[in-house]
Amino acid sequence: MKKRDITLFVNNEEYRLEVPVNRTLLQVLREDLNLVGTKYGCGLGECGACTVLLDDDKAVLSCLTLAAEMNGKRITTIEGLEKDGELHPVQQAFVDKHAIQCGYCTSGMVLKSKSLLSKNPAPSEDEIRDQLEGNICRCTGYVKIVEAVKHAGELISNEPGRRTCS
Ligand code: FES
Ligand code: FES
């Protein structure tokens, strides 16, 4: 298999890698960089478990993204959200609202929600459900996840001393 030399900036760390051209970003994150917070669900673009952020706030499905095409890009995984031992507001909101059960969907949900909130800090319930449509949760029934996303928007908007969504 043909290989390419690439540089990725993952969670503000620089990685120089040689990757087969058919290797997915999900494989690189989990197997090469040991960032296993990003989950393999379906591998087909249908569950959202593998969601990561590209260039800060664009949600992408890492199972459908070729690592070789990410040369020079900035990627954020769930491991990159916490800062100085403090959860990101979206993570904190998921904890506060008990929006986590088995947790398998959670990293994808949190990152997709962060992407949504970066564009719209006060989404309606319909907007949240619409945006999270591609992220499947088999445990929670989504009600608490929707509450968590609303709460995250409030945390981000109402605490001026707190860092912003980015
Ligand atoms: S593992 Fe990527 S969408 Fe399901
Ligand atoms: S908490 Fe189990 S799949 Fe969502």
Descriptive notes:
The chain has two domains: 3-80, Ubiquitin-like (UB roll) (Roll); 89-158, [2Fe-2S]-binding domain (DNA polymerase, domain 1), CATH 1.10.150. The protein is globular and about 45 Å long. The protein has a five-stranded mixed beta sheet with strand order 2-1-5-3-4, covered by helices on one side. The longest helix is centred in the last third of the chain and has 16 residues, at 143-158. Helix 2 crosses helix 5 (143-158). Strand 1 and strand 2 form a beta hairpin. The relative contact order is 0.16. The mean pLDDT is 95. The protein contains five helices and five strands. The protein has helices at 25-32, 89-96, 106-119, 125-131, 143-158; strands spanning 3-10, 13-20, 51-54, 58-61, 74-76. It is of the alpha+beta class and 166 residues long. 32% of the residues lie in helices and 16% in strands. One FE2/S2 (inorganic) cluster (FES) is lined by residues 40-43, 45-50, 61, 63.
Give a short overview:
The protein has helices at residues 25-32, 89-96, 106-119, 125-131, 143-158; strands at 3-10, 13-20, 51-54, 58-61, 74-76.
Helices and strands, with pairings:
Blueprint: E1 3-10, E2 13-20, H1 25-32, E3 51-54, E4 58-61, E5 74-76, H2 89-96, H3 106-119, H4 125-131, H5 143-158
Helix pairs in contact: 2-5, 3-5
This protein binds FE2/S2 (inorganic) cluster (FES) (2 copies).
One FE2/S2 (inorganic) cluster (FES) is lined by residues 100-106, 137-140.
